[in-house]
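ugh ok so i messed up the first submission bc i forgot one of the chains. this is the corrected input, ALL of the components this time, i swear. 299 residues overall. if the numbers dont match what u have on ur side tell me asap before i send this to the collaborators (the ones from the other lab, u know who)
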Amino acid sequence: MSGHHPDSKTMFDSYIKVASALFVLTVLTWVAALDWVPKSWGEAGNTLHIAIGLLIAIVKAFMVFYVFMHLQFDNKFIRAFVFVPIFLFFVLTFALNVLGP
Amino acid sequence: MSSGLSLAHEPVTKVANGKLAMWIFLASEIMFFTGFFGAFIVLRNSNLELFSHSAAELTKGLALLNTFILIGSSLTMALSILNLEKGNMGKFKLFLGLTILCGFGFLIVKTIEYSTKFSHHIFPWTNVFFSFYFLMTGFHAIHVIAGMIPMTFMFIKAFTKKGYNHPVKVETLGLYWHFVDLVWIFLFPVLYLIFPAH
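and heres the new structure output, hopefully the right one now
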């Protein structure tokens, strides 16, 4: 719409690439959640599991935002609408994790 | 996109009004789900034992299958828009139809998951974890259904004599559909995977 879109062949290729990456990352999320952390790590092991799971989810989210939802072409105005609530999402989740009981 | 739509009447935003409205709506949707995630984290931290035991009851395999289905539907949605813009009506209908099928597939898997829970006497009021499980996945499923209604409308219209040649409308719906996929990307690890095994 705004900005300059590449031709549809390029778009097609990037859609296929991103979808493949999303599939791979989903499998990776699954594998990372398996019980591979030594029991002796205790609570740090749980934190590691959560951190890896959410980190992969964040990477996937940005791929969807930028490629499928075309944020890579849309102007800053639109980006502001997305990034303000996303920022609040992260502040809230991290604050609640750190300040939790 | 290259739909030939004149944006002369949207001089400030340079974005089609419908698309801008969808982004504003999605911004509010992010906050809507943030509330659930925030509450979930607080309750999880104070009931870790209960949450771990309860999450172990969930069928992770079905959730993985649903993740694949939704990612696939996001891809077919993007491809249907691409083909509509190229004027490739046949492929537009094919990929839009596939997207609707993926939506149905997702809902069927979800129904199987829910009915398994019910048959194991697990209900939203069983405990606080399952309250959140049903609340979050339920709201997400409602979003899937809400996306499928206009999608089906467009699909049926595409078969009429006039056809359906509104790439911007399909693209706006696509934004919503990708967002629904996005919410699931977070729900999947948070509900099903992040709990330590017992």
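quick check: The two ends of chain A are 47 Å apart (CA to CA). that seems consistent at least. Chain A has a mean pLDDT of 82.
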